[in-house]
Design brief:
With 267 residues, the chain is an alpha/beta fold. It has 2 domains: 172 residues, Rossmann fold; 69 residues, no CATH class. Helix content is 33%, strand content 23%. It contains 10 helices and 10 strands. The strands form 2 sheets. A 6-stranded mixed sheet has the order 6-7-8-3-9-10, with helices on both faces. A 4-stranded antiparallel sheet has the order 2-1-4-5, with helices on one face. A hairpin with a 2-residue loop joins strand 9 and strand 10. The radius of gyration is 18 Å and the shape is globular. The site of magnesium ion has 3 residues, from helix 1.
């Protein structure tokens, strides 16, 4: 894989405790190939590193394989070649349940709440694998309600009657009840109003401070580059480039690459 040689400047990413280079790798895709059906390969040799308490961004045009990359990391798809390494364990092909048990959680791109259940019951479903430990479930719910006061207010509301942004917060809350070490987020602000998007990005940006490592797939290049410590560019299921926010603002080649397919502008 291509190592990133550049250090984060003071404004690169969100990490006060050292830049990208200083952090330990906690999850890695090494030359991963994967297909949904037969030999129609969607990932074609993808390599990337996710670092502890950092935000790793993934951008790329529609259909590039960003969601497929996350689904493969989380075990919904099994690599046909290459490997996925969590810590020092090769977990290629392990099912999502195993990933959850190892502290990895996933918020998919498509809406995934049970509309006919209340906010609280949706959150309780996130506690499924420790459901017999009633004390732990109640503590997890209270923790999430503390993090998202709006969800505490709406705990008895049916999820389907919430706004899109509020539903996103329920999905984030449901992923956080398990106290994950790593959270995989697929386009968390797609179709969400700008004001709420800002709140969601602020929330994501603060996750590393509470010891949560983030992988952020995003169509919004500007926001993704602004909040991430490192951004990988994908196309056709393989690496096209990578860089810190600093590098994105100076490197014409990277700028041109993303400008090809997106309206690109960095703060
Ligand atoms: N469930 C699926 N079955 C078959 N092909 C799929 C499935 N999901 C996505 N694809 C295909 O995989 C490619 C990459 O899709 P995806 O990973 O969703 O891209 P992105 O998230 O970058 O927009 C696309 O060509 C898409 O049609
Ligand atoms: Mg996608």
């Amino acid at each position: 894989m291509t190592a990133m040689a550049e250090k984060n400047g003071p404004s690169g990413g969100n990490s006060a405790n050292g830049g990208w280079e200083a952090a330990a790798t906690v999850l890695e895709m090494r030359d991963v190939h994967a297909a949904y059906h037969g030999d129609i390969s969607i990932l074609n040799g993808l390599s990337l590193s996710v670092k502890e308490n950092r935000i790793t961004g993934i951008i790329g045009p529609n259909g590039a394989g960003k969601s497929t990359a996350l689904k493969t990391m989380y075990g919904f798809l099994k690599p046909s070649r290459g490997s996925i390494v969590l810590g020092d364990e090769d977990i290629s092909g392990r099912p999502p349940y195993d990933m959850m048990a190892r502290g990895v959680t996933f918020v998919p791109q498509n809406r995934s709440l049970f509309n006919e259940l209340t906010v609280e019951d949706n959150l309780r479903l996130g506690c499924w694998h420790f459901r017999r430990d009633k004390g732990k479930v109640e503590a997890a719910l209270e923790r999430v309600f503390g993090q998202f006061p709006i969800l505490a207010e709406r705990r008895d509301t049916l999820a389907g009657s919430l706004s899109g942004g509020q539903q996103r917060f329920v999905e984030l809350g449901r992923a956080l009840v398990v106290e994950p070490k790593i959270i995989l987020l697929d386009e968390p602000t797609a179709m969400i109003a700008p004001r709420i998007s800002r709140e969601i990005y602020d929330f994501i940006e603060a996750l590393p401070e509470s010891g949560i490592t983030v992988v952020l797939v995003d169509q919004n290049v500007r926001q993704c580059v602004n909040v991430s410590d490192m951004v990988y560019i994908l196309d056709l299921g393989r690496n096209r480039g990578e860089g810190t926010k600093e590098k994105f603002s100076h490197d014409d080649h990277l700028k041109e690459m993303v400008a090809e397919w997106l309206d690109y502008q960095i703060d």
